[in-house]
Design goal:
By secondary structure, the protein is α+β, with helices and mostly antiparallel strands. It is built from 12 helices and 29 strands. The strands form 7 sheets. The protein has an 8-stranded mixed sheet, with no helix packed on it. A 5-stranded mixed sheet has the order 18-19-20-22-21, with helices on one face. A 4-stranded antiparallel sheet has the order 8-9-17-14, with no helix packed on it. Strand 19, helix 3 and strand 20 form a beta-alpha-beta unit. Bound molecules: zinc ion.
């Protein structure tokens, strides 16, 4: 992917790199995919109405505990260090008494070369794979509850890993029964690393993410879902209310999660104090810089949008606001309204580009290369829509990104692909320009090419830490998921649209699992789609259809003895027309319906449909003209079909071969073949 970014960049493939530039992971204990069959997890613990956070029309248990963070933080912009203090009010919303809590101290991933994050081997060449020039860390300076010191009894490192300090067990002095509440008082210091894996500083630019001690996710059954920070993994947490006061130098602008409810000079006139608040989100991040210019706009959907871009880059702001406006409407129509009043877009400066291309609640960071206008690559549009689409999958559905990254990154990639393709049909990835010699490229072709490289390497529905390389992770989680959903959508657009709408509505704030997604497909598109998804996601099954053979001859009267053996019928006279046989095979494990086009010498053609069941399918041909060619899937519905070279068979060479590849598919595939490591 690193090479894609650099080499492929100039010809528009950098957006692959932009998206899959996730922190990398390490090959460890392989988690088994979740068994399918179970629907949503069992009933969740409910809580009284007065504790609920957010929209009363939504079931209160969806918000997990009445969790709230009230934090105050001061940025030392010279040392790139934050001093924080505040309270976390936590309620045991599980059905089981709790004797401990788990804290994620994820900034410690950048503390030294021995952390789980830094010693990962899975991401050579992957963005985030390089070492920070300056190391970062987070220290808990105090953690108390009711005046009692909890930090003294806390573990000092991640479970069974002396070198890692990102996943910390904190015993509670008294057990907390279901429904019981604790207020933690805390103080901490966060030293930002130089920009690495979407966090850190570059010059006076500060992207402040993973910056506070954060509670892991308490599951309804009383277990804690907690993880060291792995390179390929992202996050998982309970929904919460955040009230964050940020103290920065007075000439700094702050882009942060949530609504700004205060912006004042500090007691020190050289300081500026901004306060942000937001409910029903599961993280909080901010950017602070003295080099931003601000652009405000109201989306058609009513959301107040704010773009912060480097001074002088107002074109970027206009482009990103326009794309976000379109995205809020389009994604809202597909996956339910965006429920927050604000959206902030942060475009980092070039030297901090590794802090770009990331999603946080109501805050997205973008990025984009200089060559875009010259070659017509839609990188900036793509990254804007991609990070925005995360607001639904990462944000509102909030699946476990560590265990099931495809539910976020994969569905987000498909949502991006569809949103852009609906807006710029056929040119959604690469608009073309004079300099690009008329080359255009669409996102489905790009996703297909990215997925085909790794098809069958592994199942898609793996835990982030289980992928052996960044290439597998990116190709499978992002592109194979998107290619699967796009294939099913091409076969049954209405059913798959309904399935995704129902999945998004039923599990909003609900932390859905793979079985929920597959169940929605079964309910709304049917068992074939659900089974295809299950096989591709959980069993690393592949899709491949092939024309085995094809022939036709002049139709002759049948040879042999019929009836009276003493009066033989005339031998083998032409009876007019042509007859023949076509054999099509299903080589992959996945059953999908496929269209078979029979092309005749006279230029006419005929289409048949095969349900794809069984290992092969025989068609008896009977027509006025000889068979010229057989083309499988002539409309490119089966984007998952990973070998397109066997989709055509013809009598005379090279007449229709091009038809098996869409123009764009061919280009994307060829480019990736040449450029990818
Ligand atoms: Zn993403």
């Amino acid at each position: 992917v690193g090479r894609w970014l650099e080499v492929g960049g100039g010809i528009g493939l950098a957006l692959l790199g932009t998206w899959i530039a996730r922190p990398g992971g390490e090959p460890e204990a392989v988690a088994q995919p979740e068994p399918i069959g179970a629907r949503a997890p069992g009933p969740r613990v409910t809580e009284e109405g007065d504790r609920r956070v957010g929209d009363a029309s939504l079931p209160p248990e969806r918000f997990g505990s009445a969790l709230s963070y009230r934090l105050k933080v001061r940025l030392d912009a010279v040392e790139h260090r934050l001093k924080g203090e505040g309270t976390i009010t936590w309620r045991n919303h599980s059905s089981v008494e709790q004797r401990e809590v788990w804290l994620h101290l994820y900034l410690n991933a950048f503390k030294n070369e021995r952390t789980v994050f830094m010693r990962s081997t899975a991401t050579r060449g992957f963005r985030g794979g390089k070492k920070p020039e300056q190391w970062g860390y987070i220290t808990v300076d105090a953690l108390t509850a009711g005046g009692e010191d909890l930090w003294a009894g806390a573990e000092r490192h991640s479970p069974r890993d002396e070198a890692d300090e990102t996943d910390i067990r904190v015993p509670l002095p008294q057990p907390v029964p279901p429904g019981g509440e604790v207020t933690f008082e805390l103080a901490w210091t966060a030293q930002l690393p130089s920009v690495v894996a979407r966090t850190g500083f570059s010059g006076s630019y500060h992207m402040v993410a993973q910056w506070f001690p954060k509670l892991a996710k308490l599951e309804p059954d009383g277990s804690w879902a907690h993880f060291p920070f792995h390179r390929l993994s992202e996050f998982y947490a309970d929904f919460a209310r955040y009230d964050v006061t940020i103290d920065v130098p007075t000439d700094f602008m702050v882009g942060a999660s949530g609504e700004r409810i205060g912006d004042e000079r500090g007691d020190d006139p050289a300081r500026r104090v901004v306060r942000h608040r937001i409910d029903r989100v599961h993280d909080f991040a901010f950017a602070a810089w003295d080099g931003f210019e601000e652009h405000l706009s109201t989306a058609d959907s009513g959301v107040a949008m704010r773009a912060l871009v480097p001074i002088g880059e107002s074109d970027l702001a206009e482009l990103e606001l326009d794309e976000a406006n379109n995205g809020l409407t389009a994604l809202g129509a597909r996956f339910g309204d965006y429920p927050y009043p604000v959206l902030t877009i942060v475009h980092p400066p070039r030297e901090a580009r590794e802090a770009g291309g990331m999603e946080y609640p109501t805050l997205i960071t973008t990025g984009g290369p200089w060559y875009r206008p010259l070659f017509g690559a839609r990188n900036i549009e793509s990254v804007t829509v991609h990070e925005l689409a995360h607001q639904w999958f990462y944000g509102l559905l909030a699946s476990n990104e560590h265990e099931h990254p495809f539910l976020d990154e994969g569905l987000t990639t498909w949502a991006t692909l569809r949103t852009l393709e609906d807006r710029y049909p056929g040119r959604s990835a690469f608009a073309g320009s004079r300099w690009a010699l008329g080359l255009t490229l669409d996102h489905p072709a790009l996703a297909r090419a990215g997925a085909a490289r790794v098809a069958g390497n592994d199942a898609v529905a793996r835990s982030a830490r289980a992928f052996v390389s960044g290439k597998d992770y990116g190709g499978l989680v992002y592109f194979r998921t998107a290619t699967l959903v796009e294939t099913l959508h091409r076969l049954d657009p209405d059913g798959v649209d309904r399935a995704l709408a129902a999945y998004s509505a039923a599990h909003r704030f609900g932390h859905p699992r793979p079985s929920d997604f597959i169940a929605a497909l079964a309910d709304h598109s049917g068992p074939v789609a659900a089974e295809a998804a299950r096989k591709v996601l959980l069993e690393r099954a592949t899709v491949d259809f092939a024309v085995d053979s094809m022939w036709s001859d002049e139709a002759k009267a049948p040879l042999g003895i019929f009836g009276d053996p003493y009066k033989p019928n005339p031998a083998s006279d032409s009876v007019g027309g042509h007859e023949g046989v076509v054999i099509v095979r299903r080589l992959g494990e996945v059953v999908l319906p496929i269209v078979i086009e029979l092309q005749r010498e006279d230029g006419s053609s005929q289409r048949l449909k095969w349900d794809g069941r069984g290992p092969h399918h025989t068609i008896r041909y009977d027509g006025a003209s000889p068979l010229a060619a057989v083309v499988l899937d002539p409309d490119h519905q089966l984007l998952l079909d990973h070998d397109l070279s066997n989709n055509v068979r013809q009598r005379a060479p090279s007449r229709v071969a091009w038809r098996t590849w869409s123009h764009a598919s061919f280009i994307a595939h060829a480019l990736i073949g040449v450029l990818a490591p």
